[in-house]
Specification:
The chain has 344 residues and is an alpha+beta fold. The protein contains 9 helices and 18 strands. It folds into 2 domains: 5-102, no CATH class; 127-341, Rossmann fold.
Amino acid sequence: MNEDICKVIKYNKYELIFKTNDKILFSNLKKEYKYYYDFIEYSPNKGNLTCVKVIKSEKLFNTNIKRVRNNRISNIYCDVRRNNIIIVDKKNNEVILVYNDYNDEKLQHVEEILVSIFGKKMEEEGITFLHTYCVSKDGNGIAFLKGDNIDNTLLLRLLNDSYGLVTNSKLGMNIDKNEVIGISVPTRLGIKLGNTKNSFLSEKQIQLIKDTIGYKEYFYQEQKKRNFRKENYKFNLTFSDLEKIFHTEIISLTRLKFIIDLRYLPDVKNIRIKKMEKDDIYQSLKKNKEGGTYKPVKYIDKLYSNYHSKNSVFDIIDKNIRFVKVFYNEENCEQLIKILKGRI
């Protein structure tokens, strides 16, 4: 198979080689990640970069899908994930994805692979990660640790109130003297069906959500399962969706000023804010620390099987960040947003 497209994708200072014969997938990838990635012409002097090959071939897919699970070659991982053939070849430092036909789910899979490779490269340089969503205004970031029963309702409210999106799931952190720089690890924002009925969204915004490909593909799949009435089922919004619906800015770097440990209490009328002591901070960071790869594509770790991060997420405790615990629910979200406006 001859790849029609061969580019170097650069995120901040990190690079990988990307090859594909699917021009539609590549066009959509460039459209969605224009806020984060640079797409550069490939040259052989780039060195030993990880290579991601994305191959659309019905013949290749159908020929290999049955035999790929039986592969036992040393240094090569093979499997079928989300109806895609996945090959991770550590010796040749490459990841290969093969599918028989393009749809938006294929693009999401590729996005997660790219983000995870960049995440591992960031880890190699000591950047640590938290399971959190993060917004920013005027260059100052607020990260929200995503504890039990926490959905994206507060995040959507903040985006609707002119905060920029840094990340919706995982935040990289790099220490610069006494400051902590939050680094986006960009993946799509998952939204629950019930979020489309929230009163803070206008009718126009709700209709724009229902016009997205994530919503339409979700409904098509769930209608077949007769689950389409369940409000807790999720679908994904792209970055261009978020920009169109919320007129929000997409941000890759921010100075982290607050880390808020969210605790959901359904019966609390007014929000409660509690300053966190060092031991409490340690436990919250320990619970929410993550590696550079996303769970759906943990097989990327096989390229880096001998790697251990040289820094600790706990290094941020004594830096210029305020840690607070907030007890809240949907009814008092607006109180928290007003308080944050007075701080950032």
